[in-house]
Amino acid sequence: MLENRNSLSAGFCFTVLKMGHRLEEDKMKPRGGLKCCKLGIIFLLLTIISFVGPVSGFALKTCRISQNNAICVKSKLKAVPRDIPSTVTVFDLSENRISRIQAADFRDLPVLIRLDLNRNNISQIDSGAFANLISLQKLNLNNNRLVKLGENVFKGLSGLTELRILSNRMKEVASTSFKPLTSLQVLDISHNKLDSLEKVHLILQHLPHLGELVMKDNNLFAFRSWELTNRSLDLRAIDLSQNPIAVFTITEDIFPNLTRFNIGGSSRKQQMIWDVHNHTFLSRVSTLDISGLQMALGDMKTLLQRVNSSLTSLRMNAMKYNLAKLINMSCTIPTLSSLQLRYNKLKIVSSDLFKLCVNVTELDLTKSNIKAIDDNAFKSLRSLKILTLSSNRLPSVPAATRNLPALLELDLSNNNISSLQCHDFADQTKLRQLNLYRNSIPDLKDCLFKDLTQLQVLKLQSSHIRKLNGAFKRYLPNLTQLNLYGNELTAIKGGVFKSLRSLQNLSLHQNKITTLEKDSFVGLTNLTRIQLQSNNINKQQLDKDVFNTLINLRRLDLENNNIKYESSFALLNPPFSKLSRLEELSIPAQHYRNKHLLPRNFLQGLTNLLLFKVRNNQLVYLHKDTFSYTPKLQTLDISSNDLTDLPPELFFPIQNLKSLYISRASLHSLDIFIGANLTNLEFLQARNNLFSVIRKETIESLPALVYLDLQSNSFTCDCDNAWFLQWVKNDSRTQVFDAYNYTCNYPPVVEGTKLLDLDIRDCVVDTGFICFISTTCTILCFMMATFTYHFMRWQLVYAYYLFMAWLLDTKHKNKQAPHQYDAFISYNTHDEPWVIRELLPKLEGEQGWKLCLHHRDFEPGKPIIDNITDAIYGSRKTICVISRRYLDSEWCSKEIQAASFRLFDEQKDVLILVFLEEIPRYLLSPYHRMRKLLKRQTYLSWPQAGEHAEVFWQKLRQALKTKEDPDEDRFHLTLLETP
């Protein structure tokens, strides 16, 4: 045999790929196996780590997420939900039943900016409950049941800028409650029970940046500056109203920057004593509210004198005494420009009431029970720009309003005005806004607005107007907004608005309009929005091309009218064909008894349409080309229609769609979205349909979906919905609104149970877990094989070739091909000289046997193991020339193994053993099979040099001549002592 066959090695890491090929490496470094094992261990650890921590679900039990806002309003919550995503910035928990804020409630919301806990039952806040809200800026705790604030209640809120705790029951405040709020700017603790300034002092001493303090209605009976603080505060606004303050004393300038001051009185009949030592202490106050304050006239005068040099806005609402004198005193302040006198019982405004108010520019007399105003009542108000006379009892437009040459805004809304005359607004050429709504004005005269050349906003809603006449045909060239909704108009005649060339917003909804003429809106070339909802407009009105002149229209609202069609055939004159700039169109109805269709080209011309609403119209079908004219559509609402069968091609032209509403549409499946290419759809609301199964392909066809609402559908609770349930719980991108309340409708045995309670473990295969187990097993097997190879690599190689020998022996044992040779000679290369000089000449030269030798007769290029096997089975006998080197040779060992397989499997005498030298038994002990052969097979021993050589050759010749019958008697010839 060749020398390089004596030693072989094979690495396990390559055995799988190299099986069947001979490896010719002599040695393998002993450290190689250990390195492979170390890598296996590391890989195992990494694999285990990679499967830890599943993705949290996004199906919230009680809330919904909208643009990073968690909205849980009116959800009957008794505790703060813990399933809110950590990315929310606004958390609204108002109007629930939460009674306690626990330490872990907001632990995982590090980017929360605003938290609203208004209107709950909170009576306890655990220490450090807000400690993790490091980004919080606004906190609302209004309308709860807090009685006391503990030591660490606001711990961690160093970035909070606004805190509101009004309408609680607070009596006590711990000394360090507000200490963490170093950035607080606005604090509202109104309507509580803080009855002394010492408690307020505990709050203010830790708030260096507080700019606004609101603490009205807190049972404060006295205000003394030395009880509040011993230093100046940076407050710019303070509200102490509705407190029963009997004494107000300031001895130090503690409010040097105060600009807004509310000291309005309470409902208790108690006068306040005013004691401010220095007239400069409140010298910067610009806005003063003394509404309802009861104070001696002298003290009131002193108060007004303290703000004499800075006051611009004064509120004296609901004053019970000395109103006329207070008005005269306040109007002597040269800087006063705004005067609010609401809720006073004036009844009649006399001519001398405002005679000193020459600098006032804004006067508010709302809800002052005014029945009449003297014609000269406002004669002195030459600078007045805003006059509010709303919610009084005026029967007509007062003549006094015509004496205001600088007037810009006039509010006469909610009075008893029953008619308008042409002279009512005479000479008011500077007026910009006029409010006349909620009066009783049946019609408008043609000359009514003739002098209002600069008017921009006119509000005439809810005034029982039946006729417009020619009021808008000639005047109001600069009007931009006209509100006429909530009246009794029945028809819009041609040219009625033709002078309103600047109008942008026209509100005509909630009237009784049944007739629109072709030129109803002529002249409104700059109109961008028109509201016509809740009228009686029908399709015949649309057929008149009434909207063709509105070339700049952006929004058209036709909700709750009688627009219905009986055919989906194309219209000859589509109603909106000229509105190429229209962005929003709404035509929902309140209800229809009869089903109808939508013409296929109803939206023709709306190339820039972004929003289309056609809900509650009892549509039974939408043609596949309906939206082919609206390629930019982003929001579509087709809810509350009977759209049982929608063509899949319907959505093909609107690939920019982002929001889709298809609730109550009688749909049985969402498979219409498969292949629709709605890759931009983010919001899908499909409530109250007939969906039973949500398929994986449907969800995968909406890759941008972030909000899905499937409430009140007929879900099937079996394995058909297993994938959907798993997706709802584990997907972190799409929020499935109210998923925890979805109920089962089928099968009957689970009807009414919660869909997410369905046990799907028998339905789905946890591929992640299977991958984990299979990977772990693979790694463990890899490690075991590595250890085995490192310590037993030679045994593995031996076993491999032993198996190959058995396999090939089995393959050839039934072959009956004739033998090519009389004997195959198996020997080691070191014994080759004896074979060439001794064996070959005797057996082939003298005795005439045909022998097979590997160096002469093996087929070149053929695998060695195949050559060995073919030689053994192609020869009658196999002669093994055994020596010590023979026993050390791997390939020689394989040759004798193959021959022994043939011997035992075919049960034929085919093996002859020739010992060239004496071999002790202990050397043969590892070769158990050879020792068994010696006990039952023929073997010959080559004698010492020169001893009995002829006898040896004679016996060998005799062995070659013997038949292969296994029952033939064995013969033994030993010239030396046998092994």
UniProtKB/TrEMBL annotation:
One GO CC term, this protein: plasma membrane
Database matches in SMART domains: LRR_SD22, LRR_TYP, LRRCT, TIR
Lipid bilayer topology: Single-pass type I membrane protein
GO-annotated biological processes: inflammatory response; innate immune response; signal transduction
GO molecular function per UniProt: signaling receptor activity
Superkingdom field: Eukaryota
UniProt xrefs under Gene3D superfamilies: Ribonuclease Inhibitor (3.80.10.10), Toll/interleukin-1 receptor homology (TIR) domain (3.40.50.10140)
Localisation per UniProt entry: Membrane
Protein name: TIR domain-containing protein
Organism: Amphiprion ocellaris
